[in-house]
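Homework help board

Subject: predicted structure for assignment chain

Our instructor gave us this sequence and asked us to write out the predicted structure in token form, then describe one feature. I got the tokens but I'm not sure how to describe them. Can anyone check?
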Amino acid sequence: MARLADYFVLVGYDPGKRGSGDGQGQILQRFPEKDWEDNPFPQGIELFCQPSGWQLFPERNPPTFFVAVLTDINSERHYCACFTFWEAVESPQPQSHPRNGEGEEGEEEPSSPVQPAQLFAPKSLVLVSRLDHAEVFRNSLGLIYTIYVDGLSVSLENVIGNLLTCTIPITGGAQRTISLGAGDRQVIQTPINDSLPVSSCSVALLFRQLGITNVLFLFCAALTEHKILFLSSSYQRLTDACRALLALMFPLKYSFTYVPILPAQLLEVLSTPTPFIIGVHSIFQSETQELLDVVIADLDGGTVNVPECVHISLLPEPLLQQTREALSMVLDPELEVADLAFLPSTISASSLKMQDKEIRAVFLRLFAQLLQGYRWCLHIIRIHPEPVIRFHKAAFLGQRGLTEDDFLTKVLEGMAFAGFVTERGAPYRPIDLFDELVAYEVKRMRAEEGNKQKILRHIKELAEKLYKNENPYPAVTMHKVQKPTEGCHLRLHQKPFPRLDEGTVQWIIDQATAKLQTAPPAVKAEKKCMVPSGPPIAAILERNGNALANSARRLEVVRNCISYVFENKMLEAKKLFPAVLRAMKGRAARHCLTQELNLHVQQNRAVLDHQQFDFVIRMMNCCLQDCTAMDEHGIAAALLPLVTAFCRKLSPGITQFAYSCVQEHVVWTNIQFWEAMFYCDVQNHIRALYLDSNEENHAEEESTEEPQEAKSALEIASEQLRLWPTMSREKQQELIQKEESTVFSQAIHYANRMSYLLLPLDTSKNRLLRSSGLGDVESVSNSFVTNSIAGSVAESYDTESGFEDAESSDVANYVVRFINRFVDKVCTESGVTNEHLKGLHVMIPDIVQMHIETLDAVHRESKRLPPIQKPKLLRPNLLVGEECVMEGLRVCLMPDGREEAAGGSIGGPPLLPAEGAIFLTTYRIIFKGTPTDPLVGEQVVIRSFPIASLTKEKKISIQAQADPFLQEGLQLRSCTFQLLKIAFDEEVASDSAEIFRKHLHKLRYPQHVRGTFAFTVGQSPKQAMQPKAKEKNPSLRTLSKNLVKNAKKTIGRQYVTRKKYTPPAWEQRGSQHFPEDNEDEISVSEDMDRSTLTPSTTMRPSDKMTNAHVVERACCRDYQRLGLGTLSSSLTRSKNEPFRISTVNRMYAICRSYPGLLIVPQSIPDNTIQRISRCYRQNRFPVVCWRNSRTKAVLLRSGGLHGKGVVGLFKSQNAPTAGPSQTDSTSLEQEKYLQAVINSMPHYSDASGRNTLSGFTSAHMSSADFSDKRQQPKLGSLMKQVMGGKDEGPGTFSRGGKWGSIRASGRMSSYALNVEIGSRLAGKDLLGAQHNGTPAETTFLRQHRASLYIIGDKSQLKGVKPDPLQHWEVVPIEVFDVRQVKASFKKLMKACVPGCPSSDPSVAYLRSLEESEWLSQIHKILQISVLVVELLDTGSSVLVSLEDGWDITTQVVSLVQLLSDRYYRTLEGFRLLVEKEWLSFGHRFSHRGAQTLAGQSSGFAPIFLQFLDCVHQIHLQFPMEFEFSQYYLKFLSYHYISNRFRTFLLDSDYERIELGLLYEEKGERKSQQVHKSIWDYIDRINRKTPVFFNYMFAPEDGEVLRPYSNISNLKVWDYYTEETLSEGPSYDWELTQGQPEHVEEPDRQDTGAPQSKRRIIWPCYDNRSRVEPDAISRLLQELHNLKTELGHVQERWKETWDGVKASQRTEARQEGSRTPSSLLMSSGLSHHRRSLGVYLQESGVGSTLNLSLDSDTSSTSTPSSGKPGGRRSTSTLYSQFQTSESENRSYEGSLYKKGAFMKPWKPRWFVLDKTKHQLRYYDSRMDTECKGVIDLAEVESITPGTPTMGAPKTVDEKAFFDLKTTKRVYNFCAQDVQLAQQWIDRIQSCLSDA
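My token output:
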């Protein structure tokens, strides 16, 4: 029973406190005057009676009533019912200055002397109660007011006394009728269950005022602890709204500030930092504006305002949506049927009270769904004396799958939920509606989801129960309470409320109290029972099915792998391992792992060997790395006992446990994880404690009912709590002590466990602070416990525990602090005694210290462990003479940005990262190892590059995959487009890595060129560093010394006397064999035929001659071939030869970088040359290097001009000069020199010396290339583009022919064209009237054209005026310098071999390729070369005079010769071209390749590589013109920087002679096997194998190539992008050939498995040209093998090939019709020699080419696809060589065909097919799709035709013929009469054959 009201208070206006501000209230009387013992009188009631302030009013207001709520210090709520009415006050003095707060009434006439109107003051009757019976209070206070107002004859004291002594039951649903002794009667209805809140209609009203969404916002805000403020102008509404919000939160209780009505004086409470629910009158709305973090609900306006900075987490979906729908069904039932045609009459909302309960039912269901299964996550840690219960939040969230959900996480962390656990966690207590709902109805709610009718039915059932709880009895006895008469408050002369007699009231109270004490205590039998747990969460949430199906296989894999590990089948385990690691992403697999490992621990298999230990650790780490710090799935919890179980013996007495290897995870530093684990273990132990004692007692009874389920801890606890009151005191004490010591022992156990997982193995490293940092753990844990003892102890142990060891102490301190904090919290919560707690704090530092000591030993031993089965280092194969400088360092080769090897776009297991070693030899850096991925673990990965090609080396630190630490590594980049990104293994000491770098540096940049590999090969590496070698052979030395001495002497002299020089005659020389190379010593292998050494070998200076006469054969041989001067003696030299070979530079005195013999005009004496040379940079004066055999135009090269030379040469000569100064004479001589060149051309015999070009138009036009005038590009436009002007006309580019357009790329064309030069070049009218750029051919040819064009650098030729008198023309062009080439090359390397992976590789690659501008440079070089070719071809000579004459000049000059002269496109000719233009003319290979220490700063400039790239581009466009293959170009690209050969060392012939390289004595040649010349080496390989040969070589005579140079026509060379990881670069032939192809073939036979022919070829791993050779190579190989088997004499492949070609030709002649193979061999393809990318690539792109090499054996090779995503499919590539199987083309050609009726004539490509008996036609020659077919069976006749309208005009009318078929007549027209006749004959023969 409880008192209905505790206090009755009378509060009035306090007149004494008037003054400034509001008035105040004062308590006039209170009853009883003494406080009740159990309930002290609440303070501050007077504030709450008038919440908006005490004020006087000018008129009487009607009485008001509201209930305010006060909360006392024990968080008990007191309900204050305030009944307020107004009484008149006598004004003591005239009111001169009105108060601020009094409102407008007082301020009407302040200064008037009139008596002020009467004022009224409020007075309140207040009831204070702990029960919330608002209606009863309203009635009771109303009764008292009525008695007073209407003057009823009832004693107020009696009524008040009765009111205060009335007691009623709190719960139980009883009705109590009370009377206050004034003839009244009231019925008080108590709720059945007081745990359910009573809401009457407040919830429904709240929804009415605010709407569904707003209330849900408020609901979520309240649950997630935000501040909520209600505004309304009605106090009662504020109270109701607050009450409603609390009712919605049931079963959670709001535990923060709760003030439904806040008085004005206390408004500053709103700025409190804690959450609250407060109501404020809306007149204070302006004061609430500046609250930034408060959610404001305006009840009157129906709005909820959420500030920007507040984020309210809403309910998780789908609950939010379901709740919304359910609410709208309850509040707005019409919504469902609003669209029906016939509205049901019955639908209407329930009554307000009922609606209120239905809404609450919705929220009750919501909580049941949110918290379902919560009892399974409760840990009971103590049962006696009080149950202590904790909730395992992480496990709950994890099992519900809501770890990411903001709302639920916040709710579970909130205070309300903590209260919920304390209150409802108890296992033995009375239960209410919510307990039943969450235990029994969850399944039903799950089943009914989505069925609105069923949901509504459930809601109504729950609403019934709630309603029943508040109103158990339907018929309520009538209340009878007197009401005052209407309008009584307006009576004028109302006497004030009387003063009551305290004594009377007190006496009544005392009487009642005495009576109560004598009455027997009413014992309310509480119905306690065990709280049902409901189904476990897992049973409720069925998982999504597909995940289960998928994971079953995965779990199988996990189990198998673990069993393999424990059975020591390591290889099997290794293969499954990656799959296991991938499976670990799934939760099921992680649980499975922990269960499996646990089984093995139970079977006593916890002691492992090293390999097993390693596997188990890696699995555990993988398992833990996806766990969050919360460990919501309990993985870390399950692993915790295992990490302290698994171990390995390191040495006798020292064991390493698994925990020392799994510390790197956040979860171990999370204090909440440790708490949850601790509570879980404690619960298990306490359960065990009571189970054991039970089993002893009931052992006999239970034997019958064995299979009963194990009881849960909560069940046991509830059983114990039931028995507790019946136990004896001793028994109770004993249980308490047992439990306490259980908790204590667990605390010690956990202190140990935590020290295991928190102290790092290497305690010197302070690794602890990583992750979340242990420093701020308090903020992590949601503990309400202060660190009481820990605080004091933490200070003391630092000083006392005696840690001398400063190193480890910082880690130790952190760990000790962390453990202390943990122990404090859990022990205080679980009631461990203080003595025990202190004991723990003393123990912890010792535990930690002991552990540190054991760890030190383990750490020491674990360092000594042999590294776990690291793969043994594989030794690389070395070349003859290559020696290891440094033994292999164990490294891991990391993947770089190329994705192929890492399994990227192509897929397949990643070959990188690979484990192996890095070797440094005298020649290369080699990595050799095996991939870490076990699926490709059998493969070998090799990456290497020559040391000389190293361009950049930088230190990096790498995060290896399995290892959390950063390892130091190196990134080595090579200009052979290779990158080694290596991480040193931990066994490699950092100093050995340093030594490696030093050695590398020393080898990369030797002091002198003698230190490079080409020289040191074969010597031991030690000597390699000594620069001097003893003179083996004095004659050689003296030769070079004399040479150098003489050269130095003569350089200063003006003029060198010419000695006569008579070389021996050619015939005599034929017999003298010796090295064939102007630069290298060569060892010619023994089997070399004598016949190969014909006069093509060098001239031998006969012994009599002095060594000053240096003669070079390579160049001379070529000069003779070109007819550029002979070597007969000067006496007999024929005078009509325009050029002679001059020996002026034989001592290298004039120009060091030129060869000894030079071609100069016949008429120029040597002394002139000496003078001219000074005008040019580096003295590189113009010399002839090639002559066009047809037009006799010559190509000259020189360095750029010096300033003074330029001015002298190009200034007009007319100005008179005082005397011939030095400059003038030089420039005159220079002019003479150029004129001599011009005169040498045959067209200058005419007197004027002008060339009108008409002289050789006939020759020009008759040449085969120019048969189609329309398609000839205009030279002028070409010149314009090269010089950078824009080209106007579209017609200037040829479509067919040999011409590519050279459009200037935007970047290069930065300046306009010099108009005069352009007009002289191209003819005036090109720039004049006709802007389409296609002047008539005739005018074009009649223009004057200069006889000599000087291509010079624009920057040098500034201000040069063209001079009409001279015969030469200067073409200023803009070229890039070496710096730009270097920069571009660096970017190109980064693009092709990026150092690190990018997010979108394809885009990044293309972008960086473009940024490198490499292709623009190639475009520029090709453009200039094509221009020069064109000029030479039209009969003008060209002097290329750019930069110093040894970089771009060399590139252009070599390309021009290559394009113009087919000889240079053969193997022999290309070699000669390189020797002549690059080596003899002094391209600075050593300098540009940075080959020695001196060149280190200048860096690598790939000038020669750029040239080879240009050749590659031309090769792609003209695949049938080159005798050598693409591989040959790659081979040169690789070796010109590899320093393996001496060919490309040093900067000029002069330097080579100085070193004695150019001529070597005979004796030395035979002795050494090592090849010193790359040409020898190539010859040797070429004899053995056709790898350098291009099978499609079918040159056309006199062919001049004109490649397209647009960037769109250029391809990125695959040399830059491809690699072969199986064997490293394939350019060191011995290394790759040495390996046997497939060793394991024989073993496979026994297995009996079906033999598959399939082979997987990896683009980046296999050498495709070897693994899958092209058709012809394979056939040659098969022939070779067959001959070997048959014992025939082996012939070389070349002989076989030539034989086949010869027989093909004769066959072709006999047959008369071409077979496809002869099509390839013969050179009849003149129509389309420009390729569409047709070529047999050496990389092994297969072909669909059928070559019937022997008439009997024909074999087809399958097309293997080439580079991924590369060219078009092979079938289209080879469309012009289609095989006989796929398509027969008996005859084909182009005809005009008249379209159907009213259609024009169109040219079409026709194919006559005998076999299919049809005539097909295509759009064009290249078209693969047939446009139409004429069946020859339907042809009736074929007759000559006549031209019809629209027919081609130029064609002879006899070339027309008609074909009549059964359907229609086709009209055709051929190009000429013969062709027409041929077509008619062919078709006729086909018809007759049929």
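Reply (TA_rk): Your tokens look well-formed. For the description, you could write something like this. DSSP finds 62 helices and 42 strands in the chain. That's the kind of observation they're looking for.
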